[in-house]
Amino acid sequence: MNADSPLGHHHLTRPLDYRSIMSGHRRGISAGLMRAGLALAAVPYRLVVAQRNRGFDRGQGVERCAATVISVGNLTTGGTGKTPIVADLARRFRRHDIRVAIVSRGYGRGDADQNDEAAELHQRLPDVPHVQNPDRVEAARIAVEELESQLILMDDGFQHRRLHRDLDIVLVDMTCPFGYGHLLPRGLLREPIKSLRRAQVAILTRCDQVDEPAIDDVIATIRSANPAIVILRSSHRPSGLLQFPDQQTAVEDLRGQRVGLISGIGNPAAFRRTAEDVGAIVVAEKILPDHAHYDRETVERLRQWATDLGDARQLICTQKDLVKLQTDRIATLPLSALTIDAEIEPSTEFDAMLQQIATAIHTTE
């Protein structure tokens, strides 16, 4: 088996090696030339982004829907921990008896009815419908006219500006806050940091995985782009172990256990740190591309990999992976998902924003 393939035995697969080039960790003439080429490719990307944003800033092409819209997005590609935050917001408004729907592009869905993120959100929020459509305006129309939704949470919506939003929330992943400081493809930024001036709220995710000076630096950078923005800290807390289909056990059961990790997400390093933080001993790791498809060949290769793990006692994956694998074991090893919930710091200012939205919705009923 090729060690550089997504199912190879090395911890650093191709997506991570690409990050090592963008971050500058990989040295040498070839790496430097690749960074130079990527920097040149970022120039036209920057021009296109700037032109597009100028049009939206003037209100060109922006459409409203007959519901309140909250966008939850980010500046960078890759996993910033949106799913637990979206689930937390949905639960807050459901407690106000507000009919909530989630709309998203449905990236990685293929021929399936929903992608992995939608399947995970359905598992977390069975009473909240999820409409997936590359046309967010059409998705919002369906949510309002067919589902009678009062509030729309637009997942990954910061760059999808055609749908008017009443509140813009941007997530900043503290393990890689600004995409190595460069626009795609030189870095992971979808648009410049100054675009934060459009947002009203910034939520720093995975604050528990970095130190205070790093958080202070990120806050200072955000403030330089938008002095008025409300900044909240949050942590992604392990809440339990989920075995397919619905058996829940305590996360403490992982302490001291020798495990193999499986992840097909945007930030596998953060998932590994979370598993280690709860006391798991990671003896092997299988990193797949984000939104990986678990087809027959992939699952068979996973079985072979699991069969060779003589010193692991169980396999741990993400909840997003479990909804696609839909099994409680691979080979002879039991498989569980480490479930993660968002813990957002208390904020009277943020609570007041959400309360104002809830009150306005009820007033217009």
TrEMBL record:
It holds the Pfam family LpxK. Its EC number is 2.7.1.130. GO terms for cellular component: plasma membrane. The gene is lpxK. The keyword Lipoprotein does not apply. Keywords: ATP-binding, Kinase, Lipid A biosynthesis, Lipid biosynthesis, Lipid metabolism, Nucleotide-binding, Transferase. Belongs to the LpxK family. Pathway: Glycolipid biosynthesis; lipid IV(A) biosynthesis; lipid IV(A) from (3R)-3-hydroxytetradecanoyl-[acyl-carrier-protein] and UDP-N-acetyl-alpha-D-glucosamine: step 6/6. ATP binds at T76, T77, G78, G79, T80, G81, K82, T83. The keyword ATP-binding applies. One of its GO terms (biological process) is lipid A biosynthetic process. It catalyses: a lipid A disaccharide + ATP = a lipid IVA + ADP + H(+). One of its GO terms (molecular function) is lipid-A 4'-kinase activity. PANTHER family: TETRAACYLDISACCHARIDE 4'-KINASE, TETRAACYLDISACCHARIDE 4'-KINASE, MITOCHONDRIAL-RELATED. It is an enzyme of class 2 (transferase). This is Tetraacyldisaccharide 4'-kinase. Transfers the gamma-phosphate of ATP to the 4'-position of a tetraacyldisaccharide 1-phosphate intermediate (termed DS-1-P) to form tetraacyldisaccharide 1,4'-bis-phosphate (lipid IVA).
